[in-house]
TrEMBL record:
Cofactor(s) this protein requires: pyridoxal 5'-phosphate
List of catalytic residues: S67 (nucleophile)
Short name of one Pfam family: PALP
The entry's keywords: Pyridoxal phosphate
Name under which the protein is recorded: Pyridoxal-phosphate dependent enzyme
SUPFAM superfamilies, A to Z: Tryptophan synthase beta subunit-like PLP-dependent enzymes
Source taxon at top rank: Bacteria
Protein family according to the UniProt entry: Belongs to the ACC deaminase/D-cysteine desulfhydrase family.
Chain ranges of the Tryptophan synthase beta chain-like PALP domain: 4-293
UniProt modified residues of type N6-(pyridoxal phosphate)lysine: K40
UniProt KW Metal-binding keyword: no
InterPro entries: ACCD_DCysDesulf (IPR027278), TrpB-like_PALP (IPR001926), TrpB-like_PALP_sf (IPR036052)
Gene3D superfamilies for the chain: 3.40.50.1100
Amino acid sequence: MLQYTSTPVQEFHHPTIEAAGVRVIIKREDLNHPFISGNKWWKLKYNLAEAKRLNKKILLTFGGAYSNHIYATSAAAHECNFESIGIIRGEEVEPINPTLRFAREQGMKLHFVSREEYRKKNDIVFIQGLREKFGDFYLIPEGGTNEFALKGCAEFGESLLSLSFDHLYLPVGTGGTIAGIIAGLGNACEIVGVSVLKGDFLKKEVDQLLNIYSQGKKNTSSIYGNWSILTSYHHGGYAKVTPELMGFIREMKQQHNLPLDPVYTGKLMWAVMEDVKKGSFRRGSTILVVHTGGLQGATTYQNLYEEIST
Ligand SMILES: *Cc1c(COP(=O)(O)O)cnc(C)c1O
């Protein structure tokens, strides 16, 4: 249903990596679609199919004002002829930012709610109220994480089996993407998630998602062995940055032709480089880094950041 462009694997050269005797390759999944990029494409694929199967005309989802998920869902709805509604956390600020402007241009109806109300996003009574207001929609949870997202990400994980690598690194927000990839790859390699949030609750979250996913399937959670989540590379928490991180992102772009965003992939690549420096990898091993996309907000973020810091 959704357009898909197959994506390249970029060989990453860096003195630190060469000195450690390892190989780093980057799956540029950010290039799979101009607007529904990276993991969001895979998370939406089977949700859209399910919405079609149920004959729904409207998609409704939740997100913050800079959300990659809102951006991608609005474009997916447009491409597949659904109406869409975005429940946005916080009051509307004029002028609206480029992420929300784009969503509106795709036809998404934006409905702003207070942070307090937004917290009820999984509450049945609150959702019922939204149904009375907006009609019979197909609900996609915040960040798009549900069993259909896992199915899509598992398919993506399986597709990576044609590459040869020992470790896979990716960023983790809600945990949906890593859970799907773990399910798809089994224990073909070590899978390492880099948490972009402060705290260590994601391990449990991913365990729960894997349990939901394996229900009724012959795979049991015992085959999901070789994965972990790193919790020390969040740079202060979700969407928080440091001057060092912003400098690193600029250097990656200018010297390595690698565009990264500050919320997810910048922290991911930072973690990879730190782990290489620490000697975490055996000489001769290959690390596959999954570029999960999210570049839509990067320019805005860089501009905002420069305004604040100058
Ligand atoms: C949403 C997003 C993630 C996080 O994915 P989860 O499935 O929520 O863990 C990672 N990278 C990018 C670029 C994203 O937009």
